[in-house]
User: Fold this.
Amino acid sequence: MKKPSDPQDGNYGIGDLLGLGSHSARKSYYPALQARIEELEQERNRYKWLFENALHGIFQANLRGGFLACNPAMARICGYDSPDHLIGKVIRLREQLFCSSAEFDTIRQELLDRGSLSARETRFMRADYTPVPVAITLLRRPDLGPEVVEAFVADITERVQAREKLEQLNQDLERRVNERTKALQNAILSKDKYLAAASHDLLQPLNAARLMISALQDSQLPEQESRMVHQVHRALEGAEELLADLLDISKLDQQAMKPDLAFTDLEALLRGLGEEFEAVATNAGLDFRLRLKPAMVRTDQRMLTRIVRNLLSNAFRYTTSGGVVLGMRKAGDRLRIEVWDTGVGIAGDKLQDIFTEFHQLLPQGTGGRQGVGLGLAIVERMARILGYQVDVSSRPGRGSRFVVTLPLEQARPEPAVSVPRLQPVVTDGFDGACILVIDNEPAVLESMSMLLERWGCRVLTAASEAEALTRVGEGIEPEVILADFHLDSGHTGCQAIHSLRKSLDRDIPAAVITADRSDETRRLMRAQYLPILNKPVKPNRLRALVTSLLSAAP
Assistant:
């Protein structure tokens, strides 16, 4: 009888299927299988050791339920004594593990859509119901179930605390920076206000000195004394320019200078500036040409005048031979005001530096009338306020070109606002015209009287509104009133003019002369239809003003 394991009958036993059907086969395969089993056991033990001793939490779970397995680190992160304790207590991840059910729903949907999530920050609820911030990496295991996942969890409490501390430090730093910035701004504002007040006070004696020097210039003096008077006049001009620049920079820094836009005949404005600089060109022996054409713009006339005047002053200051050109070009709906000169020029790497405060093209002592380096800084800031573009190109030793680009108005509105510019009228005297001067500064009263009397005027002086009314009450009626804006005890020249007109029952031509260059004062004068002349008073402007007022007298 054949044995059941005999392969000849076509039947095979288990040993035959494993290749162990014969003694030789068992001897051949059993050691190899045993070795493989041992390797697998070692591998399993290694992974088990890693799983149980990992610093990060590891778990397998069903998103619709709770944990299937987890390691001790996961239990520690969640504040449980052991993995079994965690698995037994947390049977619903959504409500019992995640601090926010809405955030769990978002994570679940993203995981179902994408299959995995990496280092997603969230918060788990610990056994004592306190939150713990974690970074979780999730991987779907559809082979184990539709919503079975495996995850690695890192406790990021220290990271979050460090981040929160950094955010707090940043907030504290930002708060301190804001406090320091505010304190600095207050200091700058105080400095600017002090500078404005100091400059205003300095303009008063400077105005008196300027008027006295002008009176001396009209006198017949010996040659040496005349030359000395001329030098003093030039020094006073320089001081006046510096103070005017400081006042403008102060107002620009305080953002107190606001544009007062009006439709302006640009050709007339630039032609007036051309006439102003003709004498400068003649004295310097330079050629000065105008290339103008009709154009209407809507601008702040005073600021635009200052911009172009500063550019022209700069051109003449640094040009010793050749000439200067003031021109206009139209380019579509834009207009370009151009100032060309044949001066020293500017190096390419210095073209932007020239617009900073107190920057000079040439060092002191290199020749030419030096400025203080505020003119182009004022140009840049005023142009920025008006929304204009300023460009400069230059070739050292050949000259420079400055361009101010502004919008062009296509149609001239009716009625158009003309440029307020006093036209000087040549006259030898005023034939005894009676002028009332009101000013609380004795030196200004004296210098104004001296100059006006040399022009043939009869001058009445008063230090206040009350004194002016007293003088008028004596039976003398002035033909023109020139009043300082700021008088004593908070009174103003406007009030004095109004009181005098009411007292005399006559609209006497009048003007306000002041060192106050604020926009508020300028708007107030315009509202009261009073011409304004800024101190220090230039004699030619004063003469033109008096001539204009006398011609308007009834």
Q: What stands out?
A: The chain has four domains: 7-50, 54-155, 201-256+425-554, 261-407. Residues 37 and 43 are 10 Å apart (CA to CA). The two ends are 159 Å apart (CA to CA).
